[in-house]
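MODEL INPUT / OUTPUT PAIR
PAIR INDEX: 1
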Amino acid sequence: MQRQSESLLLVGNHLLDLTTPLCMGIINVTPDSFSDGGEFSKAGSRSFKVDIDKVLYKVEAYIQQGASLVDIGGESTRPGAASVSLDSELERTIPVIEAIKKNLDIRVSIDTSSPVVMAEAITSGVEIINDVRALSVPSAIEVAVNSNVAICLMHMKGQPMSMQKSFHYNDVVSEVFDFLRTRIAACKLAGDIKQRLLIDPGFGFGKSVQHNYQLLKSLSSFKKLGHPVLVGISRKSMIGEVVNRPTEKRLNGSVAATALAINNGASVIRTHDVAATMDVIRVHCAYRDA
């Protein structure tokens, strides 16, 4: 049974009940994300420009399929990805956030490490900051903690450009655990974050396939940190290298990993495949409550 601090999440002015795991749909408004890069580009554009109507259509579909959250990213953090300019990230994400908040009823997350993007996104109505760098960029922690948004702290070893080229852990589970504990403490030192924190062990971010499965197997141990656990495993290489399938054919493997994650205590599942993920959540809950 989850403790109360782990079963409730304050996102903006909304208190979410996590006793039933929630689904977060992924919207990457980028040309180069590993799975959906370019999906939301305007037809006929010589360079990448976001088609907001395409985004709204996809988010509406996510809502109909059962998503409670949607995560907007304007900079790819796939292995080998190059950084983008601040102006580009703002241009890709802020109009999308504003359009979603104006037209649809869903809680919105911004996937960014930039404090400037965080601040603009908060002004535009986002309710969650999802940071792969765990608020380590200077001033990011102040922007996030001194707002009313929820915060997801993720572990990443290295940077996206090089993180999958070389990595070493003596004990991946304990090292990721200690990192997250340190970042939680930093947030608490910066301000009041009661019921506003999520943690993410960072599957695929500076980790081998074996490291990823060790983390998945030990996921329940992260609940000792006292905050809900978010996982992002959808279509990743930890699935592809096991099932030997390309990105677009990794649904079955992703569903299997999702079931294991939920059974091991995950409260939020970040995914490209909302309908299938919601099926996993519903079956899990039926089994749990039988």
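PAIR INDEX: 2
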Amino acid sequence: MDGSDGRQAATAPTRSWPLLGTLTLLVAVNVLNNAAAPALYVLWACVAIVGLVLLARADGLRRQDWGFGPVTGRAARAAAALAGVTATAMLVGTQLAGFATAYEDERVAGMGAGEVAFVVLVRVPVGTALLEEVAFRGVLLAMLTRRYGTAWGIAGSSVAFGAWHLLPSLDLAAGNAAIGSALGTHHLAAAVIGMVAAGLAGAFLCLLRIRYDHLIAPLALHVTTNSAAYLLAWLMVSS
């Protein structure tokens, strides 16, 4: 992705079906993961990642176009710094009265240590973070940028990322103590807030992807944030 002129150097694609196929695949996987067959969450993620790579190739994208080229030292250092700072900030947050309730998620209550380890080490890194980074900061961002430029690529990817969180956000008010206290039974309001927050986060992750010319930086931040949230929530609910 060439950030100097807002477009990739490659010729703009003439076929629309890879982009439409990408959006269709993401809708299908979202429904499978959150409604139809959530028990196979990681499997659907792996299938989707393969499908996304094939669609990227069909669109004429190279690995480096969607953020999977060689990792530079600069990108690796940024990823390590983002992970370290995020983990430290989240750990400190559990000790602050004003932030501690944000970690109290009843959805992790009753989980055993083995189940939490699977979530933190496999489900989140592969089923959530890797899939979402390849999809939204990788393939979709690259496809949209080639067609419409960087600004529209970021906007489109971020809006899609927000919409991706509609179904999982419906349970926010019921599962999280802080959100439930603020919104009560207004699940739709919680879902809208979750979608907007996800969209804004998606835009920031797009900027990281572009700045470091690789998915490793947004992926490191994404994995650390989600895995640490699960682990800290489990520790607080279990204590």
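PAIR 2 NOTE: The mean pLDDT is 88.
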